[in-house]
Amino acid sequence: GLTAYAQVAAAAGAAASASAAADSERARISSERSRLEAKFAAEDSACYKKFLVNQCLDEIKPKRREALADLKRQEVSLDAQERKARGAEQIRKTEDKASQEKQQEAAVRRNDSLKDFQARMDREKQKNADRATTQANEKTSSDAAANRAKNSQEKAGGRAGKQASSAEEVRKFTERQEKAKERLARHARDKLNETKPPSAPLPLPP
């Protein structure tokens, strides 16, 4: 279909064409009236040259009235057509104005709908971004807790290892102490055996 602009342009062109046709028709009627007036004026002049002048003029008058009345009817018809065309043009302009207002209202509604849709999309995008941020924060907190737990386990393991190592050192030290005591005891016994005087001889029998 034609666009609104094309429709308006077509209507304006049709109105201009109709106006030009009316002007042309009005000029034709005016020219025809002038021609008839000249013709009847010539016939009147001819009547004055005749003997029965009044009879001649009376014969011409009905013809003149009829011819001029026909031109008058054409002018009236033309005027009526022009009034009808002007009325139709006014109606068309009113309808065009109403149509343009409706189109503007529709455009405003479309624009408002687009703004509402964009606002909803922006809100949804912001919600997704906030959700992603929250999830990232939760993951970071979870990772931090896991790291803390891991560090605690490692520290506990380190302390247990140190304690086990200390216990092993104590055991080894104790063993060394026991062995040293044994060596000292043996050494003392050995010394004692070396310094002990020989046993007295048994007395001779009588």
Task: Fill in the keyword field for this structure.
single chain; 206 residues; mainly alpha; 2 helices; 0% strand; rod-shaped
Describe this protein's structure.
- The protein contains 2 helices and no strands.
- It is an all-alpha fold and 206 residues long.
- α1 (4-47) runs antiparallel to α2.
What portion of the residues fall into strands of 2 or more residues?
under 5%
Mean of all residue-level pLDDT scores = 83
Helix percentage range: over 70%
H and E order? HH
What is the SS-derived class? mainly alpha
Main beta sheet: strand number and arrangement? none
Gyration radius (Cα, Å) is: 67 Å
| Tally of DSSP β-strands | 0
Give me the number of helical elements.
2
The general outline is rod-shaped
Distance between the termini: 168 Å
Low-confidence stretches: none
Summarize the structure.
Helices cover 91% and strands 0% of the residues.
Give the helices and strands, then pairings:
Elements: H1 4-47, H2 53-195
